[in-house]
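Re: weekly structure request thread

Next one in the queue (155 aa):
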Amino acid sequence: MFRQHAVHSQEGDLLCRSGQLCAPQQLWIRSERDGRVHVVELVGELDMTTAQAFEDELKRVEATDAAQIVVDLSGLTFISADGLKAFIHASARSRHGDNRLRIVRGPDEVQRTFETSGLVSRLPFTDEADTTSPWHGQVSRAFIFVASPVQDWPR
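Done, posted below.
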């Protein structure tokens, strides 16, 4: 089963970093089961407006009989305190269940957030080589370019 959906946080808000194009804040969640492993890949920003959608998808996956649940952070560009909280809750559920959650480390800037908060030793991180994620490494960045809102396009 393959589920992919986007969660937009306040469409029209643009992220502009020096030397980079602007794009709406967004989180793509790609969720697929491959045999006994279910992979949830996050691409974009996990913040207060997108964390609930991620947590809902993860709870849906936890309700299945997958032997291992892998959350791939390799495409994540930002994580807020709300995103961290979602991982704390997921880890607690996993520890009280059958301990099947694994988290693939994100880029340095995302991983630093986990390190600064002291969560690296409390969460089930795994190295890239230890996971069987069919998606890991396929999406390095996701960009959505917005020239003008659809309603303002000339007819």
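The chain has three helices and eight strands. The chain has a mean pLDDT of 75.
Next request, please.
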